[in-house]
């Protein structure tokens, strides 16, 4: 029986823990596989480390972020993307990020010609689709909500975007050392490769540049004192405003034109075992002793590659392949020359499900909050509580009905808008009171003003509150 030298050398060595890393993408609750479609630090021992210094092109997609993954995962307009974060990239120990690492989160997207091409991360084209910092209603930072949700953070893709390849960037900022001398704000960023179905004539939002010049210690929010009593609120948000979809073309049914077709990053034909960027392929069939041992050699060559190239998410599936090779050896020794055994059987193990909610964290701002006719109920006023309507239909989603979420969000948006209200706001206040009454009775009419989050008062106030919050720190 042959054992891979690489397996013996590395199979029992746990990967080093550091801080946090985005390891896994889920599309509409479906696990794509650890490290699959993820651009990840090729140095496994440092995969969870923050980006240092700030003046670093790795700020776009992390260390090794210009090296593309071989796979691009498919998603639909309005799909919910869920990202899993871990302290130990291979999941050998629990935890998503240390509780001391408190701070904001954000999610960006960038259209690219080919997500599987290298050197397309740093630069312009990035637009923000979600951000969340400190939720005053819960007295929690985004990273604390991430911990509460077992390391899962979700966002819904806004409708009407141009179909094609994208990079999706997650950004966490830990502020535990931001007030030090010198200040040490710690960014943890990662990117997933995504193919978005839809019209090639869809929206292409105006983007910003993310590279070595994006952040400095002069950036608002990066030297924030996490330990001040009381906290200086609202938190001085940084970066671009969350993208607001064009409400006249945000619905996929309103965007005509040729539909994009995925050409790159597909699962290779014949792949029977997936490990992040690696695939195992069935060995040649055989009917005599010479062919049997030749196929054994094929198998062990692939085994060595599996053990020798794994990313920080680990090598557990390599043992599955090694067991396959051992079985072929046993068959050859026993004189069973018709094989390989279980030819073509898919060996990729069943992936785990999301162990948490797939709703966006309350207190954040999401692009879908601004969509015309959206049922999402999210207010964004100065850190006040909000709830995204992107909840999954699974039992893990938030139990509150979309109508009730909308009513509560409208009431929150009303409260935030009161500070700037003029004489004409009395009509809005009356509408908000009507909405609250409907919410308490458990029924909200979809035809009333403000209930659809699109052209209603609730949506407008959420937008106004968001912009006011930005202007405060301009």
UniProtKB/TrEMBL annotation:
Q: Where is this region: Disordered?
A: 371-474
What GO molecular function annotation could you give as one example from this UniProt entry? cellulase activity
* Top enzyme category: oxidoreductase
Q: Name one GO cellular component term.
A: extracellular region
InterPro entries according to UniProt = AA9, AA9_LPMO
Signal peptide stretch: 1-18
Where does this protein reside within or beyond the cell? Secreted
* Stretches with biased composition (Low complexity): 387-410, 422-446
Look up keyword Endoplasmic reticulum and say if it applies.
no
User: Which residue intervals are annotated with compositional bias (Acidic residues) in the record?
Assistant: 411-421
Provide the E.C. number(s) assigned to this enzyme: 1.14.99.56
Question: Which UniProt keywords are given for this protein, alphabetically ordered?
Answer: Carbohydrate metabolism, Cellulose degradation, Disulfide bond, Polysaccharide degradation, Secreted, Signal
Bias class Basic residues marks the residues at 450-474
Cofactor(s) demanded:
Cu(2+)
Q: Which residues form the Auxiliary Activity family 9 catalytic domain?
A: 19-229
The primary location reported for this protein is secreted
Pfam families, per the entry: AA9 (PF03443)
Q: Does the keyword Disulfide bond apply?
A: yes
Q: Please name the PANTHER family in this protein's record.
A: ENDO-BETA-1,4-GLUCANASE D, PUTATIVE (AFU_ORTHOLOGUE AFUA_1G12560)-RELATED
The domain section of the record reads: Has a modular structure: an endo-beta-1,4-glucanase catalytic module at the N-terminus, a linker rich in serines and threonines, and a C-terminal carbohydrate-binding module (CBM).
Record protein name field: AA9 family lytic polysaccharide monooxygenase
